[in-house]
Amino acid sequence: LQDPEPHIYEQVLSGPWELNKYNLILTGEKLGHGQFGLVKKGFVSKESNRKIPVAVKSLKGTASEKDKNDFMNELNILKKVGQHPNVVCLVGACHIQGTLYVAMEYAENGDLRSYLRKSRRSKQNMYQNYKGVSCLQRYILIKFALDAACGLRHLAEKQIIHRDVAARNVLLDENLIAKVADFGLSKHEDTYVKTSNTRVPVRWLAPESLFNAIYTTQSDVWSFGILLWEIMSMGGTPYHGIDTQTLCNLLKQGYRIRRPRHCDATMYAMMMQCWNEKPECRPTFHELYMRLQRMVEDSQ
Ligand code: ADE
């Protein structure tokens, strides 16, 4: 019996991304909770019996129109992003019995925020130098930031605004290479003005996004500054203990998060530049990438 093929899937299921349904193996293993429900582990079988692990997001035919549109938006963004070592890339998509499955690159070490929080308690932290942070740790933290900046520079070149840059949306592969993930809110536009009243990641948002609903690559740079802060605080919560209304008032007065304990002045200065009130005065992802590369070299 043939599966019904709703037309909404046809545009995404034709072309190079189409997976033969017999090549997608689903396991029951849960990886996390996406906006559209569970992300599960799977495998895609390639030629010569090679199986590659994937993370599978699914969309049931019975989902709401809004969920379907958002899911399609994410899939179309993933196609535009293409392949990049610091982005969680699309592997393929297929349609099985009314459900659309999207297979993405699998990132073995999970999300960066959880990884940093686990590392707070691990043995690695016992080898500390007099400044309280080991050389290895300093290197790996800056390397995470460099990888994320490289992925975000690629998105900026493709004119994609991510809109949800945060440590929870950066994943780590088996070699601890950081990859930007989760394009659920992303837009392929120069400037996106949000119209609907959906939830937003308040603590990561630039003032122009928070107060005027304006999103650009330069508002992603602000969020990247918050991501730098999350990395240097080993997975801390930005503006911890401050409620949304108070945070809005503080931002209007020019308040910024304080320097984390083990963060040096150069790194803190970089965050503060990302948090410039004027979007055009913030550094670009290319500048951030170049500066982080120098910092990685110096920390080796
Ligand atoms: N959780 C959500 N997406 C994932 C991915 N691509 N790899 C591993 N875990 C994930």
List keywords for this structure.
binds adenine; 9 strands; alpha+beta; two-stranded antiparallel ribbon; 9 helices; 300 residues; five-stranded antiparallel beta sheet
How would you sum up this structure, described in words?
There is one protein chain. This protein is an alpha+beta fold. It is built from 9 helices and 9 strands. The protein is globular. The model is unreliable at 1-5 (pLDDT under 50). It binds adenine. Adenine (ADE) binds at residues 31-32, 39, 55, 88, 104-107, 110, 171, 181.
Describe the protein's topology.
Blueprint: H1 7-13, E1 24-34, E2 37-45, E3 51-60, H2 65-81, E4 90-96, E5 99-105, H3 112-121, H4 135-157, E6 170-172, E7 178-180, E8 192-193, H5 207-212, E9 214-215, H6 217-232, H7 244-252, H8 265-274, H9 285-299
Antiparallel strand pairs: 1-2, 2-3, 3-5, 4-5, 6-7, 8-9
Helix pairs in contact: 4-6, 4-9, 6-8
Adenine (ADE) binds next to strand 1 and strand 5.
Structural class: alpha+beta
- Give the number of DSSP strands: 9
Indicate the low-confidence ranges by residue numbers.
1-5
Report how far apart the termini are: 60 Å
- Global outline: globular
The portion of residues assigned to helices is: 25-40%
Report the sheet with the most strands, covering strand number, pairing sense and barrel closure.
5 strands, antiparallel
Radius of gyration: 20 Å
What is the mean pLDDT? 88
Q: DSSP helix count? A: 9
Strand arrangement across the biggest beta sheet: 1-2-3-5-4
- Which range does the strand content fall in? 15-25%
* Secondary-structure element order, N to C: HEEEHEEHHEEEHEHHHH
Provide the list of bound ligands, each named once.
adenine
